[in-house]
Write a structure and sequence with these properties.
The protein has 289 residues and is an alpha/beta fold. Helices cover 41% and strands 17% of the residues. Strand 7, helix 10 (245-254) and strand 8 form a beta-alpha-beta unit. Helix 2 packs across helix 8 (199-212). The longest helix has 15 residues, at 131-145. The N and C termini lie far apart (45 Å).
Length: 289
């Protein structure tokens, strides 16, 4: 029986030196290896903002805001001036301007958007982050800047949006794009990419559960989807090699009021700028609003 391919919000290519270092540590101590992999798992890659996102970056009002629950500062973007607001949430190693094409389309139909750089991402301070940070930020921004009409999330951002709704975020609709469904699979995939013994997955999971005081699987997106009543549009590409399409299908299956759009040949990131995808998002928001 083959291991089920999984989501991996931290699925950017892992440098060979890190894989070699992990292997060496594995011969020394399981405990040390667990701490090392935990550090890697929560360290995003920071990328220079691409030229295509500079328009949104330059036209946005930006400021650092404090998130009390996690005691961290993050960079927030306000794009447009409409009182009808939509929250945009990037994925792992992304930025608050990553959904710029979606933001531009939303401005065109009378909305403004608010987005952010998660800790260790974009212009936000720090170098560590985890999904619970994303959720806490969403809920705090909603307190400070909400209410929002819609929340849109990509990849880890989609998982975070569904979990934030589960924890009390009030929006009329949500859109999740290329989102994973099972949290524990993320760890399995991460350990596999490091070419380590699968048993380390269990050690890493137990490490985080001890640190945060709850089961990691509680944050699986399909569980949050099962408790979500509002209309949710799930978009996923059949050729997404970072987050397999079955994840999006599973999220949709658990939704009470879901709609599913499967694309082909767009992968994990090009999907954010595809004209058909943009048109579907706008249609969904207009129809349900």
């Amino acid at each position: 029986m083959t291991k089920k391919s999984s989501i991996h919000t931290q699925s950017l290519e892992i440098p060979k030196i890190i894989i070699i270092t992990s292997k060496l540590i594995s011969f020394i101590s399981t405990k040390l290896l667990t701490l090392f992999t935990a550090k890697l798992f929560t360290t995003p890659f920071k990328h220079k903002i691409p030229k295509r996102e500079l328009g949104m970056d330059q036209k946005s009002f930006q400021k650092l805001i404090h998130i009390p629950v996690i005691n961290k500062q993050i960079n927030m973007y306000k794009y447009g001036k409409s009182d009808k607001k939509i929250l945009l949430v990037h994925g792992w190693s992304g930025r608050g301007t990553q959904l710029y094409k979606i933001a531009d389309e939303l401005l065109g139909i009378g909305y403004s958007t608010i987005s952010f750089d998660a800790p260790g991402h974009g212009k936000s301070p720090g170098n560590r982050s985890i999904m619970t940070d994303f959720i806490s930020i969403i809920l705090e921004i909603n307190k400070q800047e909400g209410p929002f009409e819609v929340a849109i999330g990509h990849s880890l951002g989609g998982m975070s949006v569904l979990n934030a709704i589960k924890q009390g975020l009030k929006v009329n609709q949500a859109v999740v794009i290329g989102s994973g469904d099972i949290v524990e699979d993320i760890i399995d995939d991460f350990v596999a990419k490091l070419k380590l013994n699968p048993n380390i997955s269990t050690q890493l999971r137990l490490h985080f559960e001890k640190k945060y005081g709850e089961k990691m699987n509680n944050y699986s997106a399909y569980l949050a989807a099962a408790e979500t009543i509002i209309p949710v549009l799930v978009i996923h590409d059949k050729n997404d090699f970072e987050v397999p399409v079955k994840a999006g299908i599973n999220i949709h299956k658990h939704l009470k009021n879901g709609e599913l759009l499967l694309t082909e040949g767009l992968g994990h990131r090009k999907i954010l700028g595809n004209d058909d995808v943009l048109e579907k998002i706008i249609q969904f928001i207009k129809l349900k609003s």
